[in-house]
Write a structure and sequence with these properties.
The protein is an alpha/beta fold and 230 residues long. The protein contains eight helices and eleven strands. Strand 1, helix 2 and strand 2 form a beta-alpha-beta unit.
Length: 230
């Protein structure tokens, strides 16, 4: 409902008054529609793929942080939309199945893989995940993995020649097609983003927020979560 203040009403020219009201209403409605449309196209999207045996902290922390940063995140179950048992016996419920997520939206601004040894092995063996990663990498979209999940990049031939990192015990699984980096929480090389483990998940999330929505938003989320500077 729109209310317009009318200080003086000229009864001698009611047609002019009506035209004024219609004009103001139309202008305000157009501005609201434009703002709504702008907000929708500005929103970034991310797809987190959840497989049985995934590391639950890396999954939840990353999804939570991205949503705090204004990113629309879909938590998609690799094998369906049923609850998924993670590496520390925590059960997570996907928003929907990976198949449904891709049917609704074939491409996202970022595709993210959480770690966990079993979960990473399942991601490495999935041809659907392989195709998805390759298509997004080719399109210049963000392709990210944490902990053991960079081994899925190796399995699917994604990010070759890039600087990457991973959980220390999986270093020997990263082939010579990559430049392995130690001593950094998060490694970014173009559109390829990797991180080390549960303890680096907060910085992994902040890095993705900055890449998707900007440094200012990342700083805002960092401050609000008391990650540093308290």
């Amino acid at each position: 409902m729109f209310v317009f203040p009318l200080r003086r009403i000229c009864l001698k020219n009611p047609k002019s008054l009506l035209q004024t009201i219609v004009t103001r209403y139309s202008t305000s409605f157009f501005q609201l529609q434009t703002n709504s449309f702008s907000s929708s196209i500005m929103s970034k999207s991310a797809l987190m793929i959840l497989a049985q045996g995934a590391e639950e902290m890396e999954t939840v922390i990353t999804v939570d942080m991205l949503r705090r940063g204004g990113v629309t995140v879909t938590l998609a179950g690799l094998d369906g939309d049923a609850p998924v048992l993670c590496s520390r016996q925590v059960t997570l419920v996907p928003d929907k199945s990976l198949a449904d997520a891709l049917a609704e939206k074939p491409q996202y601004d970022a595709v993210i893989l959480p770690g966990g040894l079993e979960g990473s092995e399942r991601l490495s063996k999935s041809s659907v995940v392989g195709t998805l990663l390759k298509e997004h990498e080719k399109s210049g979209k963000i392709v990210a993995a944490i902990c053991a999940a960079p081994t899925a990049f190796v399995a699917h031939g994604v990010g070759k020649g890039k600087r990457v990192t991973s959980y220390p015990s999986t270093k020997d699984k990263i082939s010579t097609d990559y430049t392995y980096v130690e001593g950094e929480r998060v490694v970014v090389d173009g559109n390829i983003v990797t991180s080390r483990g549960p303890g680096t998940a907060y910085w992994f999330g902040l890095t993705l927020i900055e890449m998707l929505t900007g440094k200012e938003k990342a700083q805002q989320v960092e401050k609000g979560m008391l990650i540093s500077g308290y």
